[in-house]
């Protein structure tokens, strides 16, 4: 059964998409896992550069992306613009601060874990799937990556998203932006 983007204002079918079959889903999960392994060898600075570059694209393309959000979700254009710009702002914030958020933290009293020294150390999770039933696809996706930024941006995990079907065009657009920056994502 095709996935349809339907204009909520007019009821018009704008575009249809074929869902992925099980083999394609498995292929993409394997691709994401391989990409996460590769990302482990990149630096905070490189991942921050990608996040900032994605924010640059969003800011430069705010009108097109906002119109797409309005078409798919029926949100007012001003609100859609705000979501796009907030998404870019979130990306920049975590690009700037993720490394400090993830610095090893010495445990104040290592004896509580029967050690002379102990630290909290952040480790990559691997591929994280975020099923997103909300209508704020861009903002939710950027927050997912940012909240997991402790892992996604800074520790080289990968955030795969599964948004509401009505947001298929937005999800593909965000994916294309990320693909333009670096070949580490899921289509």
Characterization of this structure:
The chain has a domain at 43-103 and 127-181: Aldehyde Dehydrogenase, Chain A, domain 1 (3-Layer(aba) Sandwich). The protein is built from seven helices and six strands. It has helices spanning 22-39, 44-60, 62-73, 77-101, 137-147, 152-155, 168-181, and strands spanning 3-6, 13-17, 105-106, 119-120, 127-132, 158-163. The strands form three sheets. It has a two-stranded antiparallel sheet. The two termini are 19 Å apart. The model is unreliable at 148-152 and 183-187 (pLDDT under 50).
Break the fold down into its secondary structure elements and pairings.
Layout: E1 3-6, E2 13-17, H1 22-39, H2 44-60, H3 62-73, H4 77-101, E3 105-106, E4 119-120, E5 127-132, H5 137-147, H6 152-155, E6 158-163, H7 168-181
Parallel strand pairs: 5-6
Antiparallel strand pairs: 1-2, 3-4
Helix pairs in contact: 2-4, 3-4, 4-5
Feature tags:
6 strands, Aldehyde Dehydrogenase, Chain A, domain 1, two-stranded antiparallel ribbon
Structural class: alpha+beta
The CATH architecture classification of the domain at 43-103 and 127-181 is 3-Layer(aba) Sandwich
Q: Count of helical segments?
A: 7
C-alpha-based Rg, rounded: 19 Å
Calculate the terminal CA-CA distance, rounded to whole Å: 19 Å
Q: For the largest beta sheet, what order do the strands appear in spatially?
A: 1-2
CATH homologous superfamily label of the domain at 43-103 and 127-181: Aldehyde Dehydrogenase, Chain A, domain 1
- CATH class of the domain at 43-103 and 127-181, named Alpha Beta
The low-pLDDT segments are 148-152, 183-187
The main sheet comes to: 2 strands, antiparallel
Helix and strand element order: EEHHHHEEEHHEH
Mean pLDDT: 77
- Gross geometry: globular
- Portion of residues in helices? 40-55%
Strand percentage, roughly? 5-15%
The CATH topology name of the domain at 43-103 and 127-181 reads Aldehyde Dehydrogenase, Chain A, domain 1
How many beta strands in the DSSP annotation? 6
């Amino acid at each position: 059964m095709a996935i349809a983007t339907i204009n909520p204002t007019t009821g018009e079918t704008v575009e249809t998409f074929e869902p992925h079959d099980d083999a394609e889903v498995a292929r993409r999960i394997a691709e994401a896992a391989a990409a996460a392994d590769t990302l482990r060898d990149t630096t905070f600075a490189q991942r921050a550069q990608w996040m900032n570059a994605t924010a640059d694209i969003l800011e430069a393309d705010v009108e097109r992306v906002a119109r797409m959000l309005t078409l798919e979700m029926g949100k007012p254009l001003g609100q859609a613009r705000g979501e796009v710009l907030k998404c870019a702002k979130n990306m920049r914030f975590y690009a700037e601060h993720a490394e400090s958020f993830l610095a090893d933290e010495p445990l104040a009293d290592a004896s509580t874990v029967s050690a002379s020294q102990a630290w909290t150390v952040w480790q990559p999770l691997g591929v994280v799937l975020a099923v997103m039933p909300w209508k704020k696809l861009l903002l939710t996706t950027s927050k997912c990556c940012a909240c997991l930024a402790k892992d996604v941006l800074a520790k080289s995990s990968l955030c795969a998203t599964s948004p509401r079907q009505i947001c298929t065009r937005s999800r593909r657009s965000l994916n294309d932006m990320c693909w333009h920056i670096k070949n580490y994502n899921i289509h």
